[in-house]
Amino acid sequence: MPVAIITGASKGLGRALAAALAGRGWDLVVDARSAGPLEEAARELRAAGQGAGRGAAARVVALPGDVVDAGHRAALVAAAGELGGLDLLVNNASVLGAEPLVRLADHPLEGLRAALEVNVVAPLGLIQEAMPLLRMSSYLASYEEVVPHANSTLGGGGDNNGRGYDSHPNIENVRNAGSSDSPPYIGTGGAILNISSDAAVEAYPTWGGYGAAKAALDQQSAVLAVEEPGLRVWWVDPGDMRTDLYAAAAPEDDPSGRPLPATVVPGLLRLLDGGAPSGRYTAAATPGGVSSR
């Protein structure tokens, strides 16, 4: 069965995506900084895997720890190897750098360093550790695609994911695949999903530190996609969600109108199902909606 590593999986989007994958029969390696909430999530994930049609619960390895720790990152990859390999790496763990968020003139520099360490340095460290396993993955079928990058909106909202998703948004160029001057883009390895934010591309007051870290993650992802054409590299803005992270960022906001993280998951699954080309994607958390940050 396919194997995924998901960081920050004890709550929010990480936990919701892990539950969906477990329900599909994926084996999982999950982490979070707090052992108690992570083990609670792991029990839920194993239960979700009961109905995956494999006769047993999904194998779930829960490793508490901090992604900034190189030893912890190595342990996550080693656990995936023991499960049989690695097909999907989800860099979801994140910190704000300041809670609540503040203007750049008042932003603590130590907080900015922490945001860069968790949101940029640690994901690359985990990618580097996992690269041999990801390159060996054969989960995603090969296909020809001249344009290796996409910039698209994922449908969201509801289990049926009502908005359509075009896995080949540049289809008009595909007819040239294989010609002498347009070598085909062949992806045969695994996938990397980096969770980004609209704050990476928009200038929102008080979101400067966090947004700068996510912007760096976006650029890092784009370069990685060029350097590793055999992998799928997706960096996704999930839109506004009702999460603890957002509550910490803006405690004065009323969270009741924000969609739950589970509403974003169908769009993320479409990336896997469609073997989507590497690129930046925006998941609209409500039908026809527009994400903000």
Automatic annotation (TrEMBL):
Note the superkingdom of the native organism.
Bacteria
Annotated GO molecular function terms are: oxidoreductase activity
User: Which terms are listed as keywords in the entry?
Assistant: Oxidoreductase
Concerning its family, UniProt says: Belongs to the short-chain dehydrogenases/reductases (SDR) family.
Q: Which residues form a coiled coil?
A: none
Task: Give the GO cellular component terms, alphabetically.
Answer: membrane
Q: Which organism is it from?
A: Streptomyces lydicamycinicus
The name under which this protein is listed is Oxidoreductase
**Region of interest: Disordered:** 151-182
